[in-house]
Amino acid sequence: MYLYLPVALTSINILIPVGLGLAVGLLSGLFGVGGGFLMTPLLIMFGIPATVAAATDSNQIVAASTSGTYAHWKVGNVDFKMGIYLLIGGFIGGIFGVHAIKILQATGNADFVIKMTYVFMLGIVGIYMFVESLNSMRKNRSEKADKEEDSKLAKLLRALPIQTRFEKSGVTHSLLLPLFFGGFVGVLAAIMGVGGGFLMVPVMVYILRMPMHVVVGTSLFQILFNCIEVTFLQAYTNHNVDFILAVLLLLGSTVGAQVGAVFGRKLKGEQLKIILAVIVLVVTVKIVFELTLTPSLLLAQSGGH
Amino acid sequence: MMIPDLKFRISNLKSQISNLIAAALTVLAVIYSVPASAQLSITANHDNITIDFFYHGSTVSVKGVSEPNTDLIIKISSPEGIETLKQKGKVAGFLWMNTGTLHLKNTPNLYSVHSTKKIEELLSREEADKYLLGYEALEKHADLSPVSGEAEKTKWFEEFIRLKESLSLYKTSSGTISLTPDAGRQKYYIKTDWPYQAPPGDYLVTVYAVKDGNVIEQAGAHVNVEQVGVVRYLSDMAKNSGAVYGIISIVAALGAGFGVGMIFKKGGGAH
Question: Which residues of A110-131 are buried (b: 16+ CB within 10 A; e: fewer)?
Fold first, then answer.
C-alpha cells in the first residue's frame, strides 16, 4: 500500500519505511547508535529528497532512542549523570562545529576534508575496536598487562581537577573529561552531519572505561536529546520534517529498539563490541566504495549528508 | 450588416472610417480564428488532480480534433523556474564527491513532449526553438551557471535531463499519439502517466499542429495539481507554523517511544 508524504512530496510503499525502521531500530537498541548512517542514504535511494530524509530521520530517532533508553533504563543501564555531562559538552562542541564547517566551506574543499576525516576516523575506530575486543575475548584473564600499560594515562586523568564518582558506570573521572570528549564528538558530528553515535560509543568504552551495556543505554539517552534539538531546528528553520514518514519509520524503529535491547542483554560486552566494530568497518568500506565508484548521476538535489 | 449601416450614417465620416476599420479587423479575426479553433481542439481529461493520502500518481489523457494529415506535438510543462543542484566530480583523480553547485534558470520542473513523429523530422530547428519543443530547444533556452562554454553547458544539461528523467519529471516519446480519421478531420488521443513526483501546481498542456516543418496552429489546456485534506493541512502546517509542527513531531515521537516501551514491559520483554 502506498502513502503520500506531504513534505517529501512523494509517494512510498509503507512496507519500506516500516521495514527500514525495524532494522535500524534494532541496531539502535543493540549498540546505542542512531543509525542515521544507514537510514538517510536508504531513504534517499527510495526517492525521498536528501534534506527531508536527514531531518525526518532525526525525528524518528527521537522515538527509537526513547524506546531504547526506556528499555535500558528498566534494567539499570543508563548513566544519567554521565549522559548529561556528555550532552553539555556535545552542545558546546556542536556550536564550534557549525562555525568550523563555515570556515571549511569558505576554503572551498569542505566536502573532501569532511569525507576524508570521516573515513579515517571510522576506519581507525573500527580496526581498533575489532582488534581490542578480539584480544580480550581470547585472553580474558591476562588483562593485568593492559591495565598496567595504561596506568600512566589513568594517572594523568586522575590528576585532573573535579574528580567525580559515576555510580552507574562504576568509574571515577574528572568532570572535565566527559565535557571535553562530549565536545570533541559534538564538533565532529556537526562537521560531518551525523549523530556521532559511532564515535561516542568508542569514547565511552575506551576513554571513559564504562561497561559496554551502560554505554549503549547512556549513548541512547544522549542521542535522544540531540535529536530532539535537531528535529526542532529542522522543522522550525528548514521545514523539512515529514511527519507521516517519521510515523511510518517509528512504527518499526520503536519496536526494533526494544527487541535490540532485549537481544543485547543476552550478549556479552565483548561480543557487542566486536559486532559493532564489524558494522563500523562495513560502513567505512561502503563509504570508500561510494567515493571511488562512478556515480550514476552527476547531479543531485542539494542538502543531506 | 455593417454595409447598410454605413450608407445611413454617411455624414459622420470620421467615426465611420474608424468603425469600418474596426469592423474589417473583426471580420479578419473571425475568419482566421474561428476555423482555426474549429480545426484544432484539446481536452485534458484531468484538469484537477487531487493529492490525498493514497495518491500514487495519476494518468492524464489528452484528446482533441485536428485538421487531417497534420502531425501533432503535445507538450506538458510546468512554469519555468530556477533550480540549484549539487555537482559531482572527481577529486584527486579517483574520489567522487560534490565539487560545486549548478544553478539553472528558465527550466521547467516538469516537461514532457509527445509527438506523432520525431521532433527533428517534424520541425525546423528555428521552429522547435521558438516553441521550446524537445530537449535541444530547452537547452538553448536554459541558463546554466557556472559553465565555461557550450560543450560544458551541453554536458551538464544532459546530466540535468538524466536526473529529471530518473525522477519521471522529464519524458519524450514519438509515435505515441494515436490518430483516427473522423469525418474529413482527424481525432488524436494520448494517455500518459502523471508522475507522483510532480509537486502541486498549475501545468500547461499544449498541442501543436505541424505541417511542412512549421507550427500552423496551437491550442492549450490546464492541469491543476493540488493537495487536499490532511495532506494539505500537514503540508501547510510544516511551511507556515514550523515551531508548532516541530513540537508536535517531537511529542508524538516521545509518546510513541514510551508507549512501545510500556507495551514491551507488560509483554514481559524485560529479563
Answer: bbbebbbebbebbbebbeebbe
Closest CA to B114 of B76, B140, B158, B79: B76
| Cβ distance of B242 and A239 shorter than 8 Å | yes
Note whether B176 and B189 are within 8 A (CB). Answer: no
Regarding whether B209 and B104 lie in a shared domain, the answer is yes
Residue B27 shares a structural domain with residue B52:
no
Q: Is the pLDDT of residue B255 over 70?
A: yes
Instruction: Give the nearest partner residue to B55 out of A4, A64, A265, using CB atoms.
Output: A4
Structural domain count, chain B? 2
Express each pLDDT in A82-111 by its tens digit. Answer: 899 989 988 888 778 777 777 776 766 666
Are the beta carbons of B53 and A300 separated by less than 8 Å?
Answer: no
Distance between CA B179 and CA B201 in Å, rounded? 30
Residue from the list A6, A62, A265 with its beta carbon closest to the beta carbon of B234: A6
Q: Are A94 and A100 in contact (CB under 8 A)?
A: no
Give the 3-state secondary structure of A90-139.
HHHHHHHHHHHHHHHHHHCCHHHHHHHHHHHHHHHHHHHHHHHHHHHHHC
The single-letter code of the amino acid at B87 is Q
B53, B84, B249: residue with CB nearest A243? B249
Whole-angstrom CA distances from A242 to A194, B18, B231 are 19, 63, 11
Is the same domain home to B175 and B206?
yes
Query: Do B6 and B90 belong to one domain?
Result: no
Contacts of B91 in chain A (CB under 8 A): 109, 112
* pLDDT tens, residue by residue, A226-245: 889 888 888 888 888 999 99
Report the residue of chain B nearest A12, measured CA to CA: B56
